[in-house]
Every structure is written in C-alpha cells, then in structure tokens.
Design brief:
The complex is a heterodimer of chains A (about 110) and B (about 120).
Chain A: E1 4-7, E2 10-14, E3 19-25, E4 32-38, E5 45-51, E6 56-59, E7 62-67, E8 72-77, E9 86-93, E10 100-102, E11 106-111
Parallel strand pairs in A: 2-11
Antiparallel strand pairs in A: 1-3, 3-8, 4-5, 4-9, 6-7, 7-8, 9-10, 9-11
Chain B: E1 5-7, E2 10-13, E3 19-24, E4 31-38, E5 42-50, E6 53-56, E7 65-71, E8 74-79, E9 88-95, E10 105-106, E11 110-114
Parallel strand pairs in B: 2-11
Antiparallel strand pairs in B: 1-3, 3-8, 4-5, 4-9, 5-6, 7-8, 9-10, 9-11
The chains are: A mainly beta (about 110), B mainly beta (about 120).
Amino acid sequence: GENVEQHPSTLSVQEGDSAVIKCTYSDSASNYFPWYKQELGKRPQLIIDIRSNVGEKKDQRIAVTLNKTAKHFSLHITETQPEDSAVYFCAAPSGSARQLTFGSGTQLTVLP
Amino acid sequence: DAGVIQSPRHEVTEMGQEVTLRCKPISGHNSLFWYRQTMMRGLELLIYFNNNVPIDDSGMPEDRFSAKMPNASFSTLKIQPSEPRDSAVYFCASSLSGTLQAPQHFGDGTRLSIL
C-alpha cells in the first residue's frame, strides 16, 4: 500500500511570508495528489490538487509542485495571512484504488 | 448544492452502548468513505464503498465496527458495543469515481465521546 510522509509537523511563519509543506509517497503508480485544509473543529476541505501529467498548479496564493521522479510533492502558500492558520494534509491514492492515504498533517500558524 | 451530510454532529454515550453514525453522500457520487480522526493516529480510512458495495474494510478496527450502504444516498457506521477508545471524530466523505482519481468531499463529522 501507499506510504505518505509529511513534513514539517508544525510550521510558524510571519504574516506575509511564504510557507512550504512537503510530502513524499512510495507508490510510483500514484497519479493524483490533493491537499486539504482543516480548521480547528471543522472538516477537511480540498484546497488544491494536481495530477501526474503536470508539474505545477497554481490557484491565487496557493501552488502545488510535483516531482514524480523523486516521488514528492509540495504545497506553497505565498503572502500568508492569519486565516491561513490551520492543519494541512497531503494525500496520495493507494495505487489503482480509489482510496487516499493521508499524511500526518502540518499545523501552520501565521503570526500577525 | 448540499454537501455530505452527517448525523449526529455530537454523540456522548456510555461504554457498552450501541452507536450509529449516519451519512448522506453528495447526490450522484458513487464512492463513499468512512474515516476516523484522532490526535494519536491522524486521519484513518475505516471502510470504502463503491456503487454501494464495500470494497475495502481493512481499516475497520475490529468486529465491533460494522458499516452498511443500503442505497446510493445513505450509509451507516455502527459500533456495538462501544468502548472509551472509540472516542474520536468520524468523518464521511464521498466522491465521483471514474477512470481518474476524483476529489473527496468531507462531511462536518460526528464527534463521538464514549464515557
């Protein structure tokens, strides 16, 4: 099955700075990589995803990069704001199956 | 559009009691997932249905846990008998699975406390 490792577990940045969260995966057949944001007491919400036929995808202040050779993908948040403070999870599919294996999460704190 | 709907939002009960969690997936979605979230183990997949059929229940912790999906718009996760270590937030998620992997959309979760 898939093994997803996520780093760092906690990240504090000053408002306006950039934040980067990295994940590695083990199954070379994985072809879809979503990122979820979970605010305290709320549900995980999809914020961006990328498929293996592209190397980068952007949506306003959020971007995801994928390196299939090295089997890692990263979430980049630019111009961070206090409302970006949350736990962020990466995920990868279990091979050809429809389920996702989630990383252990990164607690991002944006300091005003 | 209505998202994934879970009930109840909170459940507090004594150990040994039966607990039933309910989920209504997004209309038209054909895959449904039950997750458990705890501080210690993070987000764990318990069971996954595709077209109402259980595909992978390897994440179900033990025989006290069971899940059903009698139709495309309803699923239940049952714990009988419940134990304090079952306390967690249980999420249901759904997706429209086809040839390509599809995003999963989560419900608001059920916060379960077993005393």
